[in-house]
Amino acid sequence: MDSNGSAHGNQDTIKSDEEQYLEQDFTSSELGTKEYWDDVYQRDLRTYKDIGDVGEIWFGEESMHRVIKCLRKENVPADAAVLDIGTGNGSLLVELAKSGFTNLTGIDYSAAAVELAKNVLEQDDLSNIKVEEVDFLSCAGTLTGFDVCIDKGTFDAISLNPDSAADGKAHYLKALQGALTQGGLFLITSCNWTKEQLLHFFRQGFAFHRELPTPSFMFGGKTGHSVTALAFKRVQ
């Protein structure tokens, strides 16, 4: 304690607690495994072929409209190269195409998801949109030149991997830096990570650009958000 009565040890503890919060990992889950998502999309593919139901839209339709509204606000050109990371059933690609974007690519590491997305796109006469079976964590240096990268839940799933969440997040960051052009826009929607945690993780190579509005709730006199949606720009 100094002459003013300040306890430096307590200040260090507070800083350490804050760092632990910003860098904490979640309890691992089957939602972080490829096997889980292969099973999900194999079922969704069978359902689609049987009754034409495309399956769940992660974070709901409002999440897609939120992304498109942001792209318009940023005056992103219609021919900008856009990458949908973890495209799933391809619903976001459909909405982007209907909104006038013409240079779209979707990737997913599940072969069943890719087949489902191609079927959904073909149904809407959008078979010209590229959808590929790609593991984003293993593609550093092979996916390049995108003006916009969009993630709705993929980073969340990677963070839940029971085997290598920390390595997965590091590979994700490297792949994202390689895929996005200098000054390119990265839009991420997460239900696991807070704004502060995402700002901390993407602080290397990216600059916070804006927060996208998401539904809020009130609990214990405080306002919170069940979903976080942020826009970053690649700076290095």
From TrEMBL:
Main localization (coarse): cytoplasm
Catalytic reaction(s) noted: L-lysyl-[protein] + 3 S-adenosyl-L-methionine = N(6),N(6),N(6)-trimethyl-L-lysyl-[protein] + 3 S-adenosyl-L-homocysteine + 3 H(+)
Cell location: Cytoplasm; Nucleus
Stretches assigned to the Methyltransferase domain: 80-207
SUPFAM superfamilies referenced in this protein's UniProt entry, alphabetically: S-adenosyl-L-methionine-dependent methyltransferases (SSF53335)
GO molecular function: protein-lysine N-methyltransferase activity
Biological processes, Gene Ontology terms: methylation
Xref: CDD domains: AdoMet_MTases
Protein family per UniProt: Belongs to the class I-like SAM-binding methyltransferase superfamily. EFM4 family.
UniProt name for this protein: EEF1A lysine methyltransferase 2
